[in-house]
Each structure stands twice: as structure tokens, then as C-alpha cells.
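Justification of computing resources. Each target in the renewal requires a structure prediction run like the one illustrated here; the chain below, 504 residues long, is used simply to show the kind of job we budget for.
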Amino acid sequence: MRVSSAVRKPSPNVVQNSWSFLRDAMISPTGFREYDARWKYPEEINLPGVTALGLGLGTQMQRRGIKPEIAVGNDYRDYSLAIKQALMLGLIQAGIQVKDIGPALSPMAYFAQFHLDTPAVAMVTASHNPNGWTGVKMGFERPLTHGPDEMAELRDIVLNGAGEAREGGGYEFIEGIREAYLDDLVGDFKMSRKLRVVCATGNGTASAFAPDLFERIGVEVIPSHNELDYTFPHYNPNPEAMEMLHDMADSVKQSGADFALGFDGDGDRCGVVDDEGEEIFADKVGVIMARDLSKLYPDSTFVADVKSTGLFASDPELKLHGAKADYWKTGHSHMKRRVKEIGALAGFEKSGHYFLAEPVGRGYDCGMRVAVEICKLMDRNPGQSMSDLRRALPQTWSTPTMSPYCADTEKYDVLDRLVEKLVAKHEAGETVAGRTIDNVVTVNGARVILDNGSWGLVRASSNTPNLVVVCESSESEAEMRAIFEAIDAVIRTEPQVGEYDQTI
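Resulting C-alpha cells:
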């Protein structure tokens, strides 16, 4: 195949209904985010722009001397196949052998790297973002995905028109990855206790996986929006959103299920509601899982993101089994990398991304793997319900993840000023919710820690035009609300910050 070496720099302005829109690459620079790429489509990127992205990604592989093979998949959105095809065209142009695994979950694409012994992966997905968004999760060093350095390098290649066309590219459609992925998840495990589980998929990609997975391990499935429908007629599948958790809770109460498990649009996150209809935020579920794993693997290290509960460090049960906590930057790429670097057994994010390393998993975030491990946990504790496990935790009061609007072009500057203001409050000896500020951790935004261990966090979202706010009290709901009010009062000094997507 002859390839053209002429590459134009993409335009930053995407103008629909124009001649150039169908011909020229147009990419908004803001879509190159901290650890993956996401744009509104077609407002911020067009199909020639996606092809330019593929050429840039392939060029990045070639420059790094990576074997020119890549596994490529797409989520279940009506435009994702077109996006994937445009991406593959650019990869082939760069001399890359493309292995198309078809419609997939993100963790199925990560699994394909291992199953096919392929060094690179590119998954076309908007993840938990609502329809109208697209993006690519990509990586070269399994089980890791691109971090800030790799994303900056890719951005510069693409936006400077530095993609290099080469001979040698090709295409192959790979059959059977879905079945191999499910087989790998299940192994020889079968439930010994009876479980009835609400399976909530929000009509997203996980609908094609989760019900089958549960049936394979002997769990009775109570379906909840398990029909594939890329319009998402009930809610956007996001187990961090209270809308989805409330719907899961209603299903549990109506059915008398043992618990509910819910999955996001690309299946790399899992949310939990217990048998009493109590919505357990994912970081608390992480503590429940860490407690169980620490019995099997004493003296383990667990990584938690800065949005997560302080219980990973303070829980007496974890301390009893020698568990160590390591708090790190939020974001699936940061967390995967940290788990691998320090040899942790698992990493837990408040968003519901869990990173289970060997011998439990392969280190990447997989909502299906988490679902299986939760069922195994329940099997190892036959006399306990999910609500029993929840009540056994030391009580804290936490907000959901709340995201006020802030433009991508402004949010990091706004955050820098907010961090300065919160650090200044600490240095001036000011109080929050009537308590002394013990410390302000600035590894990822500002986590304001009070003298009783309660805390409030503000950071910039890595994948949407938002800030992120989370608060937790070890004392009471009233204190948790007071912490939020104090943090929000500082946030409101910045006029560029808009309304919250959800609040308490």
C-alpha cells in the first residue's frame, strides 16, 4: 500500500457543515487530557481529526521502538464504530498492524493485550461521560495506560502535524475475545451460597457482559436496564452518580435482592448497593474488599486515591492484618502506575475504579473482575449480608463526588488559586467547621485534613470541564455538611466556577 507523507497540522477550530470539516483534521487541543483523550463529538473533533490522532499514536509507537501491533476496541455508542474506523485508518497509515477486537469493554481491550500478546491498546470510549462525548484510552506498557508524559508527547505529535506515514500497516479482525475474557474472569469458580443480585448496566456496553458473567458463576440475576440501547433511555451509566445509585436501591427494595452491582459505560467501574438499599460509596466498598483481602494476604499495601475515605489508614481491622495505606493521585492511569510501582495488592478509587494486582487480577481496572471478587468475598462470608459488612466498618459520613463546572481552559489556573487560598487558611490558623486544620495535602488539588481526621477535597477533573469536591467527617453528617460549606465558600470566590452536577 502506498502511503502519503504529507501531513497538515490539525485545526483547533471544529466548524461543522463546512467543506473543510469533511476533508481536514480538526482537533480541539483541550481534548488531550491528563491520562486519556476526550472530546465532544463532533463539536471538538471530526473524523479526519481522529485519523490524525491514530497517525500520531502509531508514530509514537514507532518512535519508541514498540512492536507495531495494537489491539483496538469500541464501546456501545452509535458513533463509536465510526470513530474507531477513523482511528484505525491513521494507525494503519503509521505502519501499525491493527487487531480489531470489535465492540468491547475497556477491560476486555486491556485483557486482549495479554491474550494476544500485543504491546499496545487503544479503546474508543467516552467511559462514564454522557452521550455526545468520545475519546480514546490507550497504553503501551501493560497493564498501564498513558500518563501525563505520554499524553503530552502524543499531543505534540498530533497538533504539530508530526505524524509519520510508513509502509507495513495492516488490519485483522480477531474473533472470540469476549468469550476468552469471560472465561478468564470466571475460571473454575462457582458460588456455594445462593445470591440474588441486581445487575445494573444502564443499557450500556456492560449489558452484553455482566448478566452472562453472573450466570456463569451461579448468581441469580435480577435485571436492571440490561438491554443494549445507546440512547441511554433511563440514565447515563455512571455508578458514581446518585441517579444511578438511587435506581439500583429501588430495584433492591422491590426485589429483595442480596445487593446490587452497577457498571459504567465501558465497564471499568463498579458500584454497590446493599440488601437494605443503602448506597455504599465505592471507597467504602474498597475498605470492605481490603479487609477481606488482608486476611488472605497479610501485610499488603493498598493504594487509595485522594478522594477516598481515610479508613484505609485508620481502620483497626486493616491495621490488625498489617495492611498499609498509600494515598495517591486520582485517575485510572495514575493509580495503575502507582499500584505497579510500589507492588501494592490493590488500588481503590472513590469513582469505582479498582486495580487488583497479581494474584487477584492483572493490575488494570475491570468492573467485571470486581463483581466476581465481591461475589467470592460473599462466598467466603456465608453468614453475613452486604449490610453486615457495611455496618462493621467504623462509621463516617461522606458526600458523593460533586463536580461544579469550570472550563477546561481555566480549571487548572482556578485550582492553583484555590489551593493557595486553602493553604493560606491553614497557615493563618483559621478553622474549618469549627476545627483546626491539621494539614493540607497538595499532591492532587488540596485535601484539607482537620484535627479529628475529617477532610474536604477540591481538585480538577481530569476528563471533563469541572472541578471535583468530596468531603468526609468522622463525627457526624452535620460536620460533613459544614466542611462542604466551608470548602464551597472558598470555591465561590472564583467567578469562573459554575453549578454542581449533584450536591448534598
